[in-house]
Write a structure and sequence with these properties.
Elements lengths: L34 H11 L30 H4 L8 H22 L15 H14 L19 H12 L13 H8 L4 H13 L9
Helix pairs in contact: 3-7, 4-5
Length: 216
């Protein structure tokens, strides 16, 4: 009696092949196990017939990167509100230093002399800083966490603005409006090599343009 394929019930002669194992549809004790048998064999041994994630997993086993905190993110000033979560004292400090560094950049980039860079002894840097704070209060941030006072924290009000202006306008304050600052000074004061970039981004947001945009 001739052996027949267990799947198609044909002998080798009927299937017009030399050997029964060449029949791709069937299986017998002389042929390789079928796809279904292979899968069952894999499951019985605990081994998976295929490696890698399944079609529906879409790489779900890939580890997600741990996000950095807002203050550690180099794009802090762009991706988040740059004064969010700061103390009142630190908020004042960054607003003042952001404005001071902006004046230094304008002097070097545009040849514009304001504040401590203005040769006119009667020029009052507090006027420009007052306008800077007003713009910060009214700035709408479409991409960041919005507060009740534009860019500034919820606790900010007219009284806080006056207090910030008073600190900035004190001539005895070496970190105030009457004293120049530059990138190296900021890095030394904060101990943070990224702080100049953060303060510049803050000023860009308030002013509504970068230094590359040119003077208005």
């Amino acid at each position: 009696m001739q052996d027949t394929c267990a799947h198609c019930n044909k002998s080798a002669a009927d299937a017009a092949i030399d050997k029964l194992k060449e029949c791709r549809k069937g299986t017998s004790e002389n042929t390789a196990p079928s796809k279904g048998a292979s899968e069952n064999a894999g499951s019985s041994t605990g081994a998976s017939p295929k490696s890698g994630p399944s079609k529906g997993s879409k790489g779900s086993n890939r580890a997600n990167p741990t996000p950095t905190s807002v203050t550690e993110n180099p794009l802090y000033g762009v991706l988040q509100n740059p004064v969010m979560g700061l103390s009142q004292k630190e908020t004042y400090r960054r607003l003042i230093d952001s404005f001071r560094l902006r004046l230094d950049d304008e002097c070097n980039w545009w040849g514009r002399f304001r504040g401590a860079y203005d040769s006119d002894e009667e020029a009052d840097p507090r006027v420009d800083f007052h306008d800077f704070l007003l713009r910060a209060e009214n700035k709408e941030l479409r991409w960041a966490v919005q507060s009740e006072k534009g860019l500034l924290p919820k606790w900010w009000d007219e009284e806080k603005r006056t207090e910030c202006e008073k600190i900035a306008g004190a001539k005895t304050n070496r970190e105030g409006l009457y004293h120049k600052t530059e990138k190296a000074d900021i890095i030394e004061a904060y101990g943070d090599s990224l702080m100049p970039m953060k303060l510049r981004l803050l000023a860009d947001i308030v002013e509504g343009k970068t230094l590359m945009g040119g003077p208005s």
